[in-house]
Design goal:
The complex is a heterotrimer of chains A (293), B (542) and C (172). Chain A is mainly α. Chain A has helices at residues 2-31, 41-51, 62-82, 96-116, 121-152, 157-160, 167-183, 195-198, 208-233, 238-261, 268-290. Chain B has 19 helices and 15 strands. A four-stranded antiparallel beta sheet of chain C has the order 2-3-5-6. Helix content of chain C is 27%, strand content 19%. By secondary structure, chain C is α+β, with helices and mostly antiparallel strands. Chain C has a domain at 28-146: 2-Layer Sandwich (Alpha-Beta Plaits). The longest helix of chain C has 16 residues, at 151-166. Classes of the chains: A mainly alpha (293), B alpha+beta (542), C alpha+beta (172).
């Protein structure tokens, strides 16, 4: 039975992730006095790209370059199986929170490997930015996970959700909210892609199917992170949970895309400085959790 | 003061009135004169090489200086001796490009030029062919030669990042080679002149004097009207044509509408470069009103096509005047509101403050113009220094900021937009009645004229020599970006790669304006003669 | 806070983009769109071709057929309306039409052909009927006798008349 529910979860993720992006495009367009494309546009884009052939640049390290999109995509699909999203069913095992985080990191890593092996200077700059941003946010994430583990005395999703109401848990969720924003590379943190500066950085050489996989990965990652956040606040009752999950998705993407529309881009050093400050805050929250607040 | 310098160096004054001095300086005194003029606070505007074999003897170069303090332009003519003229680049850095351009296009050698390399002609252009010489047919297409391969030294510690010819931050084909270490730019090289349109040759060989305003307008897609204005002023100056006052006011009105639309466009671009897309939409929303306004007044959103020699083509009636008033009033409030709020966004300010600094001294040496100069503390504005159109009768301020960074250039442009609103209000208030064009004139032969306007990007100079039968012998437009681009390497070195687009954007570069001056447009000639009807073709106006 | 105010502003203004090309766009009076020649009014004086900056308008004589061709090529047109300014009979007008993309090149050409007058002396076609008649209105009656002569023959004849007058009625 569990397998079927997990399959439903996965199918939901695959279908809804590009739609969420379509919805966010519509919201941003509304905030910019535009009409915006139909919310299915992201889907049409992906379908078009999947039909197109891929090209490998001459200077690239071919094996890594081709492998990277598949590695990235597989890693994020695996994470989708482990994390409960629409339905509260998943592959349960001890320490699966760590595995989800590990899988998302693996995907990011694959993304950078592909960019590095493409041989394009823009892609290399982009992926080195991606990695340094990733490193700097990792510290904050580590403290947040530490806080969550302290509060619920577990690292497996079965015992984590929902988080008991405490000062440290609220602060940890607030930090998680910020980290999700940063990780999903939205303005002002879209520094690795920064279209006017380094022309979509890591993605620059990718085309066709491979580009589609990487874009799909970005949408899935955003969806997955929404799911992670919602899991912490939704009640466990099945009926309320599904409705709450859907409403939560809409609210989160509304908030995130509005923020994105009204920010300018940071420079990488500014972003890292901000993350350093945040990790200090996270450290304090962790101490608060230690003393039992 | 200026006359003293000229007299001391055996200069022969050809023309001297309240806005222009034309002199002829002997070959060996040129460097001395240039040096003294530069230290007397005259900055270098441009240089024009002319093949004068059709009107006198040999080849000459006309160096044009802008003496803001005295409100005069100085044109210094020097004949080449054995095709050689002493270079003034060692004395004034800003003359570098102008001399190299004359070298490419006319074939004058400059003695003592520090880097006598090709600037405009492409690498595969044969040696010894100079397209702007009079014996070079406009439709000649020489065979291309194998370019000399340049060996590049590779530094293993730096990465070469090509910005352009195709790059989303540049909206025109132009290329920068940036050498970076980590994220820091250690060296910047500019390679330009990809967009050759051969306008000068086209105008000199195929067009009549009253057709060229429409060609001049197409030098730039954003500030075209200011170019056609400068051209018409150059002809009016050469032929001493009186322009009716009403026409001057209408020109001023359109120039200011153009400035507002250009600056608003630029703000949008800068916000886009900084990732703030909503700011882009807000400023372009305001700009759209001005595009519609131009459409009502002139019949088109851009390329107004309003200028003719001696005046303008359409009058402005009362109902149009009211429409302008209404739009200006609404847009003024909107602009102020958007900007006050945007300037409160910390992350945008952080990206602009102390980024891309251009110190005043370097700026002067290169001769940068417009908001780029005013952002570096140089108080220069053609509208004040050399009043043209109706600016002499209007009241307005010129904002100047001292820091020289990207932010100061933004602020200069923002205040200019507000001043432009104010100028438009004054123009509408004072708009005189009467004729809009004076068509009663005769074009003298080989008269020199100079027209200068303050384009949104800076000083725009058109130099012109007339010819018989309503033709021009030599027409040389100089767009502001031509003077501003050499300042970019100074701004870029030492900055982060992430800031490169916004720094390049901050001078509001207009590459095709800079490049217009070039190779022959052979293709246009071809299309014209196509088809079976070519027997008995009469060339009109040629 | 400025950020929130900007968001509020954007929401209060709403959409500003047009639904073009799915909804039509109005252009104001005096818009300079596609020029169209009215063949009934055109007299073939070629003033427009003289003024046209990009030489999109060309006038040439097909001497064999005795026809003057006014050839307008839209592909070169810059919509400056100089032709409209100089046309003595208002035959060429700029319309409000601006959607000019087309799949066939023929749509970009307009050709007006006008019958020419043959010179009474040498038989060479030299001007259009309409232009000759248009000019005749302005001419003093005594000169109308020469209106069907080509400029060269007219010059010859005129010098003959003058020398005839000088020689006191005798051919010198």
């Amino acid at each position: 039975m569990n397998i079927i529910f997990m399959a439903i979860n996965l199918a939901f993720a695959l279908i809804i992730a590009p739609l969420i992006d379509g919805f966010e495009r519509k919201v941003r367009a509304r905030l910019q006095n535009r009409r915006g494309p139909s919310i299915f546009q992201t889907w049409w884009d992906l379908i078009k790209l999947f039909r197109r052939p891929s090209i490998e640049p001459r200077d690239s390290v071919k094996s890594f370059y081709i492998m990277a999109p598949y590695l990235t995509f597989t890693a994020i699909l695996t994470a989708c199986l482990i994390l409960p999203t629409l339905l509260p069913h998943s592959l349960n095992f001890a320490g699966d929170l760590i595995v989800v985080i590990y899988m998302v990191s693996l995907a990011t890593f694959g993304f950078s490997i592909g960019a590095f092996s493409s041989g394009n200077p823009y892609a290399q700059i982009g992926s080195s930015r991606e990695l340094s941003l990733f490193m700097s946010e990792e510290l904050v994430l580590a403290f947040v996970v530490g806080v969550i583990a302290l509060i619920s005395r577990s690292l497996s999703f079965e015992h984590l959700f929902p988080l008991p109401l405490r000062i440290s848990s609220i602060l940890a969720l607030a930090l998680l909210f910020v980290i999700i924003y940063v990780t999903s590379s939205r303005i002002p943190f879209d520094i690795p892609e920064a279209e006017p500066e380094i022309i979509e950085g890591p993605l620059i050489e990718y085309s066709g199917r491979h580009l589609a996989l990487l874009l799909y990965f970005i949408h899935l990652k955003r969806f997955l992170l929404y799911g992670l956040f919602l899991n912490f606040i939704l009640p466990e009752k099945p009926g309320i949970r599904i409705g709450g999950f859907l409403i939560g998705l809409v609210i989160l993407s509304l908030v995130y895309s509005s923020l994105e529309a009204y920010y300018g881009r940071f420079r990488i050093d500014q972003a890292i400085r901000l993350m350093k400050k945040l990790s200090f805050v996270a450290f304090i929250v962790w101490i608060m959790a230690m003393v039992g607040w | 003061m200026i006359l003293d310098i000229l007299r001391k160096n055996d200069a022969e004054v050809i023309r001297h009135d309240e806005r222009l001095i034309i002199t002829s300086v002997p070959n060996e005194k040129l460097e001395e004169v240039a040096k003294e003029l530069f230290s007397a606070n005259c900055y270098y505007a441009t240089g024009v090489g002319v093949d004068e074999r059709g009107m006198s003897q040999g080849f000459a170069i006309y160096h044009i200086f802008n003496c803001e303090n005295e409100g005069k332009y100085i044109v210094i003519k020097t004949f080449a001796r054995n095709l050689t003229i002493p270079s003034i680049t060692p004395v004034i850095e800003g003359a570098n490009w102008a001399e190299r351009e004359a070298m490419d296009m006319i074939g004058i050698k400059f003695d003592g030029h520090p880097e006598p390399e090709r600037l405009i002609l492409p690498d595969d252009w044969p040696e010894g062919l100079h397209p702007l010489r009079k014996d070079f047919p406009y439709n000649k297409r020489p065979p291309s030669i194998k370019p000399k391969s340049r060996v590049k030294k590779k530094d293993p510690n730096t990465i070469e990042v090509p910005v352009g010819p195709y790059h989303p931050a540049l909206h025109e084909p132009e290329s920068f080679e940036l050498y970076i270490k980590g994220e820091e730019i250690v060296e910047a090289k500019y390679k330009g002149f990809h967009v050759h349109r051969g306008m000068e040759k086209l105008a000199e060989s195929r067009m009549t004097i009253n057709q060229i305003p429409f060609l001049a307008e197409r030098i730039c897609g954003i500030c075209g009207f200011t170019h056609s204005c400068a051209y018409c002023q150059a002809v009016e100056d050469a032929a001493k044509i009186d322009v009716p006052e009403r026409a001057l006011y209408i020109r001023t009105l359109l120039l200011e509408i153009e400035r507002i639309h250009s600056h608003l466009l630029w703000f949008g671009v800068v916000f886009h470069l900084l990732g703030f897309e909503s700011g882009f939409m807000h400023t372009w929303r305001i700009r759209e009103d001005f595009m519609n306004l131009a459409e009502i007044l002139t019949g088109n959103r851009k390329t107004y096509g309003m200028n003719l020699i001696g005046g303008v083509r359409r009058a402005i009636d009362e109902s149009k005047k009211r429409k302008v008033m209404r739009i200006v009033e609404g847009s003024k409030r909107d602009t102020v509101e958007i900007f006050d709020n945007v300037m409160g966004m910390r992350e945008l300010l952080n990206r602009m403050e102390n980024v891309g600094v251009l110190p005043k001294k370097e700026a002067r040496g290169i001769g940068v113009v417009g908001p780029t100069a005013r952002g570096s503390g140089i108080d220069t504005d053609v509208r004040i220094d050399h009043p043209y159109a109706a600016y002499g009768e209007l009241e307005f301020k010129v904002p100047v900021y001292k820091t020289g960074d990207v932010l100061s250039r933004v602020l200069v442009r923002y205040e200019e937009v507000l001043e432009s609103f104010w100028i438009i209000e004054q123009v509408l208030d004072q708009l005189p009645q009467g004729d809009i064009i004076n068509e009663n004139y005769k074009i003298p032969e080989f008269a020199i004229g100079l027209g200068a306007t303050e384009a949104p990007r800076g000083e725009d100079v058109h130099f012109l020599i007339t010819e018989r039968e309503n033709k021009v012998y030599r027409w040389h437009p100089r767009a502001p970006t031509y003077n501003n681009l050499p300042a970019l390497p100074i701004m870029l070195v030492g900055e982060k790669l992430a800031d490169a687009p916004v720094i390049i954007g901050s001078i509001d570069p207009c590459f095709s304006c800079t490049d217009h001056v070039s190779i022959i447009d052979a293709e246009r000639g071809k299309i014209l003669w196509k088809g079976p009807l070519n027997e008995g073709v009469r060339t009109w106006g040629g | 806070m400025g950020r929130l105010r900007l968001i509020g502003k954007a929401i209060s203004i709403g959409r500003v983009t047009e639904k073009y090309p799915f909804a039509p766009i109005e252009v104001p009076e005096g818009f300079r769109g596609k020029p169209v020649i009215n063949p009934d009014e055109c007299i073939g004086c070629s003033a427009c071709a003289n003024a046209c900056p990009p030489q999109a308008l060309q006038v040439y004589d097909d001497l064999k057929r005795g026809i003057r061709v006014i050839h307008f090529f839209l592909g070169r047109c810059i919509f400056c309306a100089r032709c409209q300014d100089v046309c003595p009979t208002d035959a060429i007008r700029l319309t409000k039409e601006f959607e000019l993309a087309t799949l066939s090149e023929e749509d970009l050409h307009q050709v007006v052909e006008l019958q020419m007058v043959r010179c009474k002396e040498c038989g060479r076609p030299f001007d259009t009927f309409r232009h000759v008649i248009y000019l005749a209105k302005e001419l003093p009656p005594e000169q109308r006798t020469m209106m069907f002569l080509c400029p060269e023959c007219r010059a010859k004849k005129a010098s003959k008349i003058i020398s005839f007058a000088k020689g006191g009625g005798k051919i010198v």
